[in-house]
Design a protein that fits this description.
Blueprint: E1 2-7, H1 12-16, E2 27-28, E3 31-32, H2 33-42, E4 48-53, H3 58-67, E5 73-77, H4 83-92, E6 99-104, E7 107-108, H5 111-123, E8 129-134, E9 144-147, E10 153-157, E11 166-175, H6 176-187, H7 193-202, E12 207-212, E13 216-217, H8 221-231
Parallel strand pairs: 1-4, 1-6, 4-5, 8-12
Antiparallel strand pairs: 2-3, 6-11, 7-13, 8-11, 9-10, 9-11
Helix pairs in contact: 4-6
Length: 237
């Protein structure tokens, strides 16, 4: 399985709250967010892990370069105007990709749920994409995901106009037809992942949702403690 991590953001909200390192270097119980993702990917049969970082992340670049000596990490170094542009740069670095699991660096989830998610994607080869969703909402601008009775995604909305229980979890498994639309979207002026997901539906790509019990985004310093409590074995999901 191929994996990719969007780690090119500036982490401006964390920086304003006193965290001086790049967001991927936030630690949960002594383990960096980026290292936790890499470890989970390696335990889920990673063949390649592509990571995009911005041009002002010297400490992160040094850390990942050290890891790449022993792990299948490919670093793309480029500052981008949006997460979708980061995806464009990542996937363009390997034009032969047939499938990818992509996530942002600040997603925190239970490893056992992620493993089941990857297995579900592998077993359904007809799917264009399998998107992680959760009913836990802590995002400042969540993307609501509307499903039918068979977990097919029918809409992505900025407002909960359909009274859905789910929001996007920021983890995306995509196959080649969906991957091919990234370039079309960016070159056509699309600039956000949520708009790209809408374009996938408009293009007839079959997308299903995979519910996670909870996915925590680490955007603020207080979210670090929320994520640690979530991961604690003594805390119920």
């Amino acid at each position: 399985m191929n994996y990719a991590i969007i780690a090119a953001g500036e982490g401006s909200r964390l920086a304003k709250e006193g965290f001086t390192l790049p967001k991927p270097m936030v630690s949960l119980y002594g383990e960096m967010l980026i290292d936790r993702l890499i470890g989970i990917f390696m335990r889920n049969d990673a063949e390649k892990i592509m990571i995009i970082i911005n041009e002002d992340s010297a400490a992160l670049e040094s850390h990942l370069s050290d890891l790449s000596l022993t792990l299948p990490i490919h670093i793309v170094k480029k500052s981008t105007p949006s997460s979708l542009h980061s995806v464009y740069e990542l996937l363009g670095s390997d034009p032969e990709l047939k499938a990818i699991c992509l996530t942002t660096t600040d997603t925190v989830f239970k490893e056992e749920e992620f493993t089941a998610y990857i297995q579900e994607f592998a077993q359904n080869e007809h799917l264009g994409g399998l998107m992680a969703v959760t009913s836990f909402i802590d995002d400042e601008s969540p993307l609501f995901v509307t499903l039918d009775n068979e977990q097919n995604i029918t809409a992505f909305t900025d407002q909960n106009s359909t009274q859905t229980s789910f929001v996007s979890g920021g983890i995306y498994c995509l196959r080649k037809d969906a991957i091919a639309l990234v370039s079309e979207a960016v070159l056509g002026g699309v600039s956000r992942m949520r708009n790209f997901q809408r374009q996938l539906l408009e293009s007839g790509i079959e997308l299903k949702a995979y519910p996670f019990s909870k996915i925590v985004d680490v955007d603020h310093v207080q979210d670090i403690r929320t994520a640690e409590l979530f991961l604690s074995p003594e805390t119920a999901v």
